[in-house]
Amino acid sequence: MTTKFETHEHDVLIIGAGGAGLCAAIEALAQGASVGVVCKSLLGKAHTVMAEGGIAAAMANVDRADDWRTHFRDTMRGGKFLNNWRMAQLHAQEAPDRIRDLEQWGALFDRTSDGQILQRAFGGHTYKRLCHVGDRTGLEMIRTLQDRGVALGIDVYMECAVTRLLKDGDRVAGAFGYWREQGRFVVFKAKSVVLATGGIGKIYKITSNSWEYTADGMALAYEAGAELKDMEFVQFHPTGMVWPPGVQGILVTEAVRGEGGILRNKNGERFMEKYDPKRMELSTRDVVARAIYTEVREGRGSEHGGAFLDISQKPAEYVKKKLPSMYHQFLELADVDITKGPMEVGPTCHYVMGGVRVDPETAASTVSGLYAAGEVAAGLHGANRLGGNSLSDLLVFGRRAGMAAAQSAKKVRQATIDQTQVDMAEREMLAPFQNGNGESPYAIHRDLQETMQKLVGIFRVEADLQQALQELEKLKERARRMHVDGSRMFNPGWHLSYDLQSMLTISEAVTRSALARRESRGAHSRIDYPSLDSTWGKQNNVISSQNGAMKLRQEPVPAMPEELQKLLADEAEAVAGKGK
Fold first, then answer.
1. pTM attached to this predicted model
2. Is 257 a known active-site residue?
3. Alpha-carbon distance 391 to 405, whole Å?
4. Per residue in 509-529, pLDDT tens?
5. Of 98, 120, 125, 257, which is the active-site residue?
6. 318-322: long-range contacts at Cβ-Cβ below 8 A with a sequence spacing of 24 or more?
7. pLDDT tens digits for 377-401?
């Protein structure tokens, strides 16, 4: 291919520089591959830094009875048994070794009195399992992985957005993108590509997610022919900031509840007693989020439409030591001293359990040469993710993706990329400048967020989901005509025009999957189908592109080996939903 654009070549190209991307890069380098990492933001600014509570791993440093089997069982139970069992098994077995890698590379964890890594309680986990650094665990994890990657010599392309995967026949062979600063286009050639782009939060109005979370990795995979899975399962974290409006949705870590925080309604009642009397505030996120939502809907919410989370019954020094980020966050952003009074919190779009369908062993997608790890990939978490499992997911499957991508790259020649693909990708990106009378992408994005928040939110019903599909078609039509002013330099409106296409595609996948699943399971709650359904308990929704149209089908959940079934025998039947 002779291209008019700047071109870079690598064995392995990794899109995304959060925990999963950096783990993949470190492992691919260890396999001897030439590695390039592309990130939309600056290195170190990845959304992983926002993860606060800890990394789930059955190290048994605090609760000696913990082991991988219990972690596996908790993960499957939390995911309502829709998880890919092999991913859940590998995750539970390998997480402790990945924590030890981090420690060896210089991560500074909080310690027990005898010098081991300290672990704290978290919702849905049987034992104290979360290895942490105060409430800044993600920040320490990224610092450690970044230092390791830089020391090993990764090539990093910062402030660069990938807009299309390029193929050689049926195999992914590179990517097309642009430098966000100057708007210049760039082509990457690679023998393997790893997606590590995170989630979809910016399709919702209230989200804890950063500006990068625009569903682009899933859309890239979908457009390249890969399958998506479990897209109906969007997790609303129960505790985001509610007030003031400028900070709405910013996360209040589950560690506040793990360290003894209590949820109350405006009448002062500890309402979790009604919804999960056994686990109370440490119930799974789907249960706590729906409990707060229900309290607000029934008129017992706080002044600004949330609930009160209170840890002021603990000594002030204890709170400042265990939750330093939360203490400063509320003091500076909401003028609230959490050692003296309650925080006002409410559900915020936080995580998507669905994503690119991958092989559990290798993290390979259904398209040759394309891998995915972290939040962009589906399978591990089933219908609902447990807190702390996302960070160990990044470590375990980021490493596996990097290893498989590098090993695959050794076996294939550098592909040739047809110039017409590159020309088409360029035309797509320049179209908004040439549309004459279209509207601004900001107006379309605002309406998309309103639609998803209102019609495809915490509680869903068929009429709303049907209406959402109709609204999405109108928004897609508006997006085809949208107009961007100015030049390609420093143009956030132009950046959004691309992100919007990804968000519209993935919003449709979420809505179609939610409409199809006629039951309530995990993070997916249907008012018109409030119970578990045994039929739906045995199948995943799979999304694919066929002749330019989005198609949905059901596939059976993979059968589990007998020795693992025995670990789950007590509860699997109950959660699958006997009969109906």
1. 0.91
2. yes
3. 21
4. 999 999 999 999 999 999 899
5. 257
6. 318/259, 319/259, 321/134, 322/134, 322/135, 322/255, 322/259
7. 999 999 999 989 999 999 999 999 9
